[in-house]
């Protein structure tokens, strides 16, 4: 059995959490492969909204194993909080949540380094979620990191102290940055102790055995392709590979065992944090999208920047990921727009481009748009795509034609139920 992958094709927050939850009944295992608590994945059903940061979005469905892979970075304090929030729902996470021993830990001092680095960058800051993601991945690749499996070792405290000493030396480079580690360190250690009750696994063996035994696996991405450390809008990116290849390194799935790749995108586009966003609308239309789409970060609460859909960026993401099917999210957010715009190209220095050139951060890219007629009606109560307004059906066909990949799911609201299948 091959492993399916679900990931974001834009700058994150496409609605991955919702669709993973919708698709979970088809799978035995849901596995996160990268990122950490910079992610905020929202699920909504039975009138309740849940936001997950570390735990895979399959946790609310019975009998499904949720695996946090080696490619993920874990903040014990945040994971502990997430587990507490699950308690009222009687979720047997001690049996159904598995943590890779090779997943790296985010220390309190990683978060300090993230904050100090951002503060020192001033206007050029990345707009990081300040969850310690960058510094933790730097210690991983720098071969200084501490892994989840280390918490059971006798010399864990010594390893921890050595790494914190290194971080303190690094923090000396930021004399204006004041901090106090003592209280947060105590809470962190207590969280580590509590998390010892979780099941840990050698996740690459676990996943490969599951593949061999014919179990159905869905790999859940975090962030989005345009935030990938190699292929995103560098340096305004996150610190991991958010693309399909991240499944291989973040879970130990062999490349020839990748199955369907489901790419998620919004019917428009958003970005949170700094960095290039050619189709951004810094006007009333952008504000209207933000208001109708409630575009505020699930992790930080920050207002998301909003704009029209960007086909060159989407085509690039589809190419890098080997995307085999698409889910279009938040179509309902455009219910009250008489007309919609789609960016098909950019003009850069007088030349037409249908792709993102190198280092788009330092160039002016003027988007060229096509106008599409809006559907101007309520789609949130639709129960079948057959009954969708003709203009929405045309928008979907238009995008399928331009992108060359079928759109199999159209989402018309945050609830599990507000999900339409587009059967051919
Ligand atoms: P993720 O990080 O990709 O899982 O996405 P987030 O949870 O950060 O952001 C998506 C937001 O849009 C959440 O508040 C969802 O509840 C909401 N959402 C998801 N799908 C839809 C949809 O089709 N329509 C509307 N209006 N909201 C949606
Ligand atoms: P989900 O999984 C949207 C953005 C941050 C910042 C940049 C680097 O919910 O889609 P980092 O904290 O990783 O150092 O931040 O990446 N970012 C996200 N934007 N959704 C996310 O995750 C994000 N995770 C990070 O805003 O611009
Ligand atoms: Mg999110």
What is this structure's SSE topology?
Elements: E1 3-8, H1 16-23, E2 29-32, E3 41-45, E4 48-52, E5 65-68, E6 73-74, H2 76-86, H3 93-96, E7 97-100, E8 104-105, H4 108-121, H5 133-141, H6 156-171, H7 182-195, E9 199-201, H8 203-212, E10 217-220, H9 245-251, E11 258-266, E12 269-271, H10 284-292, E13 305-307, E14 309-310, H11 311-321, E15 325-329, E16 339-348, E17 351-353, E18 366-373, H12 390-403, E19 407-411, E20 419-421
Parallel strand pairs: 1-10, 1-11, 2-5, 2-10, 5-7, 6-8, 7-9, 11-15, 14-16, 15-19
Antiparallel strand pairs: 3-4, 12-13, 16-17, 16-18, 19-20
Helix pairs in contact: 2-7, 4-5, 4-6
The chain binds guanosine-5'-diphosphate (GDP), 6-O-phosphoryl inosine monophosphate and magnesium ion (MG).
Magnesium ion binds at residues 12-13, 39-41, 298.
Structure description:
With 424 residues, the chain is an alpha/beta fold. Helix content is 30%, strand content 21%. The protein has helices at residues 16-23, 76-86, 93-96, 108-121, 133-141, 156-171, 182-195, 203-212, 245-251, 284-292, 311-321, 390-403; strands spanning 3-8, 29-32, 41-45, 48-52, 65-68, 73-74, 97-100, 104-105, 199-201, 217-220, 258-266, 269-271, 305-307, 309-310, 325-329, 339-348, 351-353, 366-373, 407-411, 419-421. Strands 9-7-5-2-10-1-11-15-19-20 form a ten-stranded mixed beta sheet, sandwiched between helices. Strands 14, 16, 17 and 18 form a four-stranded mixed beta sheet that branches. Strand 16 and strand 17 (351-353) form a beta hairpin. Helix 4 (108-121) crosses helix 5 (133-141). The two termini are 24 Å apart. The relative contact order is 0.16. The structure holds guanosine-5'-diphosphate (GDP), 6-O-phosphoryl inosine monophosphate and magnesium ion. The site of guanosine-5'-diphosphate (GDP) has 23 residues, from helix 1 and strand 3. Residues 8, 12-18, 39-42, 44, 293, 298, 329-330, 332-333, 411-414 line the site of guanosine-5'-diphosphate (GDP).
């Amino acid at each position: 059995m091959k492993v399916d992958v679900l990931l974001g094709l834009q700058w994150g927050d496409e609605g991955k959490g919702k669709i993973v939850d919708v698709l979970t009944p088809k799978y035995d295992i849901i596995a996160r492969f990268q990122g950490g608590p910079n992610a905020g994945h929202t699920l909504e059903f039975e009138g309740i909204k849940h936001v997950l940061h570390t735990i895979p979005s399959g946790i609310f469905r019975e009998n499904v194993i949720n695996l946090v892979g080696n490619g993920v970075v874990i903040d014990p304090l945040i994971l502990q909080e997430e587990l507490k929030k699950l308690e009222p729902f009687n979720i047997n996470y001690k049996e159904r949540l598995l943590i890779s021993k090779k997943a790296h830990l985010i220390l309190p001092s990683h978060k300090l380094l993230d904050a100090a680095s951002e503060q020192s960058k001033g206007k050029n800051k990345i707009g990081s979620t300040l969850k310690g993601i960058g510094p933790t991945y730097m210690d991983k690749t720098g071969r200084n990191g501490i892994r989840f499996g280390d918490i059971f070792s006798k010399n864990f405290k010594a390893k921890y102290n050595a790494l914190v000493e290194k971080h303190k030396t690094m923090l000396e480079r930021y004399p204006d940055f004041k901090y106090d580690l003592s209280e947060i360190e105590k809470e962190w250690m207590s969280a580590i102790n509590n998390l010892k009750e979780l099941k840990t696994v050698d996740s690459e063996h676990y996943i490969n055995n599951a593949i061999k035994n014919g179990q159905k696996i869905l790999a859940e991405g975090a962030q989005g392709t345009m935030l990938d450390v190699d292929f995103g809008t560098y340096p305004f990116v996150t610190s991991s590979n958010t693309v399909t290849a991240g499944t291989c390194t973040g879970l130990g799935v062999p490349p020839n065992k990748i199955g369907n790749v489901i790419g998620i995108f919004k019917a428009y586009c958003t970005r949170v944090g700094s960095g290039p966003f050619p189709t951004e609308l810094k006007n009333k239309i952008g504000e209207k999208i933000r208001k109708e789409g409630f575009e505020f970060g699930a992790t930080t609460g920050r207002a998301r920047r909003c704009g029209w859909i960007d086909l060159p960026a989407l085509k690039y993401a589809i190419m890098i990921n080997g995307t085999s099917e698409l889910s279009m999210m938040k179509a309902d957010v455009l219910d009250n727009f008489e007309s919609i715009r789609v960016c098909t190209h950019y003009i850069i220095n007088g030349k037409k481009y249908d792709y993102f050139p190198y280092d788009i951060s330092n160039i002016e890219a003027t988007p060229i748009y096509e106008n599409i007629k809006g559907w101007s009606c309520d789609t949130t109560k639709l129960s079948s795509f057959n009954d969708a307004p003709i203009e929405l059906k045309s928008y979907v066909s238009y995008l399928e034609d331009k992108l060359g990949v079928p759109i199999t799911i159209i989402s018309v609201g945050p609830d599990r139920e507000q999900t339409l299948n587009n059967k051919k």
